[in-house]
Amino acid sequence: MGLIARALEEKGIPTVSLSSAYDLTTLVKPPRTFFVNYPLGHTSGKPFDRANQTAILKDALGGAREITTPGAIVTLPYEWGDPFWLAGA
Predict the structure, then answer these.
(1) Rounded CA gap, 57 and 18, in Å?
(2) I want to staple 38 with a disulfide (CB 3.0 to 4.6 A). Which of 24, 42, 48, 88 is the partner?
(3) Domains in the chain: boundaries
(4) What distance separates the 2 farthest-apart alpha carbons in the chain?
(5) What is the pTM (predicted TM-score) of this model?
(6) DSSP letters along 20-55, please?
(7) d(CA 29, CA 6)
């Protein structure tokens, strides 16, 4: 998705990306990325947790203008909260 975001930006279309794979995101360098330290596949929030999903999307879309350096990654403050997930990090 990061490569697609870069291509869209070259055409003048602004993009915002969400990522839960920090290492890969640094390699691809999408124009504007918000990192969420959640398990892969859950980047936009916890399943069935509408409040968490909405908060992540609002933060990413609302903060997009604040990222002025291409390739910048902003870490959002959300935590998964499951000790099993944290132990695997």
Answers:
(1) 9
(2) 42
(3) 2-87
(4) 43
(5) 0.84
(6) S-HHHHHHH--SEEEE--S-TT-TT-STT-HHHHHH
(7) 8
